[in-house]
Design goal:
By secondary structure, the protein is of the alpha/beta class. It has 3 domains: 2-79, Udp-n-acetylmuramoylalanyl-d-glutamate--2,6- Diaminopimelate Ligase, Chain: A, domain 1 (3-Layer(aba) Sandwich); 87-300, Mur-like, catalytic domain (UDP-N-acetylmuramoyl-L-alanine:D-glutamate ligase), CATH 3.40.1190.10; 309-430, Alpha-Beta Complex (Protein-Tyrosine Phosphatase, Chain A). It has helices spanning 2-10, 42-47, 72-84, 100-111, 129-135, 155-163, 178-181, 184-191, 193-200, 212-217, 274-286, 291-300, 327-339, 359-372, 383-388, 397-405, and strands spanning 15-16, 27-29, 52-55, 66-68, 91-95, 117-119, 143-147, 167-170, 204-208, 222-227, 234-238, 244-251, 264-269, 309-312, 317-321, 345-350, 378-381, 393-394, 413-417. The longest helix has 14 residues, at 359-372. The protein is globular, with a radius of gyration of 23 Å.
Length: 431
């Protein structure tokens, strides 16, 4: 591994797994997927400027720029761990069923006010993305925030043993990836692996204390707490009447003054983002960032990637939240939308994927919630919703867009939410 590491340093820590993103002098890892074999592109990577190609196919013609390993993916992961152990950079690991990407972005925004901080780009949070994030951390980085996603048990534990975080956050535990985890108890066990790792390594948890499930899981952990109770390290107060999340915060020692504290006006839609923002304030306070800089970072952050994002068109106000969806996030979004002070509300909801045997039941509960909240102006998109309610459903986003194109939709506030695979961006041009 030391030989591979020296070549990685020689490549100035530039690593690629995609021949479309080769940079001069980088190290290319030839990974395998369901429909491709990166070994077939190793020569192309060298011709495009890569200094080395890490391959695991011994049948390839000899090339002084090829580095043969037993398993390309394992080599990438081992290199990442090897590199991480040579860094003094504190690493904060983040996982959770919902909100982990937004929380990561907020924490980075806060930490960047004082520290040179590296963080997961986009949602490169899996067994390939986490190693790539780690390999991008240099000795100049004073902090790092690494997002970790999972859809089955033992995955968070595996990623923790590569990234070796000093601190950890579980945003929440909900009904996400139920098929892979084997139900909600499986999700709880899988996400809880973050706390187990930190307990074993004497790391610190940033704990959302109001969440009873998380509090129970973190009983034996060293922790810094945030929430609404005065006994927490960071205490928050939220304005529930605002379209955008607005909140104030204080430390445990000044909690009695919280009603006098200035409210931070964020660009985040949805009360469920309040605890994500409060978490970022908690992390900032722990790392001794001045209160005004924490407030400034959170107020300035603008969501992207269609997560809790407000977009105004010529005729309507759109709440874009279709990067991902599961029963927990869907319920929170609908309840928040129902309570929102807005006239002429409409919803465009897409199927929630990867729910396994509970899929039809969970989609039925969404429809029932719409009726319960008296939200009658909606359309549903996807084959699962179409089985449940045929009159207001479309098999795919293209069909939904054709229907919407024929309607005159004006002066409405519209929530658009569904799993990424439903591609609800196809309806935007009609609104």
């Amino acid at each position: 591994m030391e030989t591979l590491y020296q070549k990685f340093i020689e490549c100035k820590q530039n690593v690629s797994t995609d021949t479309r993103k080769i940079t001069q002098g980088c190290m290319f890892f030839a990974l395998k997927g369901d429909n491709f074999d990166g070994n077939h592109f190793a020569q192309q990577a060298i011709e495009q400027g890569a200094s080395y190609a890490v391959i695991d196919d011994a049948s390839l013609a000899p090339n002084p720029s090829f580095i043969l390993v037993e398993d390309g993916l394992a080599a990438l992961q081992q290199l990442a761990r090897y590199h991480r152990r040579r860094l003094n950079t504190p690493i904060i690991g983040i996982t959770g069923s919902n909100g982990k990407t937004t929380t990561k972005e907020l924490i980075h925004a806060v930490l960047a006010k004082k520290y040179h901080t590296q963080y997961t780009q986009g949602n490169l949070n899996n067994h390939i993305g986490v190693p790539l994030t780690l390999l991008s951390i240099t000795t100049k980085h004073q902090m790092a925030v690494v997002e970790m996603g999972a859809n089955h048990q033992k995955e968070i534990d595996f990623l923790c043993r590569i990234a070796e975080p000093n601190f950890g956050i579980i945003t929440n535990i909900g009904k996400a990836h139920l098929e892979g985890f084997g139900g909600i108890e499986g999700v709880k066990k899988g996400k809880g692996e973050m706390y187990q790792y930190l307990q074993e390594t004497h790391g610190i948890v940033f704990l959302h204390g109001d969440d009873d499930t998380l509090a129970e899981l973190a009983q034996k952990n060293k922790k810094i707490t945030y929430g609404t109770r005065k006994l927490y390290d960071i205490v928050g107060l939220c304005d529930t009447n605002s379209l955008f999340v607005a909140f104030a915060w204080r430390t445990r020692y000044t909690a009695s003054e919280i009603k006098k504290a200035p409210f931070i006006q964020t660009h985040l839609v949805g009360l469920y983002n309040y605890h994500n923002a409060l978490c970022a304030a908690c992390v900032g306070a722990y790392f001794k960032i001045e209160n005004n800089l924490i407030d400034e970072a959170i107020a300035q952050y603008e969501p992207t990637n269609n997560r809790s994002q407000l977009k105004k068109t010529t005729h309507n106000s759109l709440i874009l939240d279709y990067y991902n969806a599961n029963p927990s996030s869907m319920q929170a979004a609908i309840e928040n939308f129902s309570a929102m002070n807005a006239q002429h509300k409409m919803l465009i909801l897409g199927d929630m994927l990867e729910l396994g045997e509970t899929s039809v039941q969970e989609h039925q509960q969404v429809v029932s919630l719409l009726h319960q909240k008296k939200l009658h102006d909606y359309i549903l998109v996807g084959p699962i919703f179409s089985e449940i309610e045929k009159e207001k459903s479309f098999l795919n986003a293209k069909e939904a867009a054709s229907f919407l194109q024929q309607q005159e939709i004006k002066n409405k506030t519209i929530l658009i939410k569904g799993s990424r695979g439903i591609a609800l961006e196809q309806v935007l041009h009609t609104l």
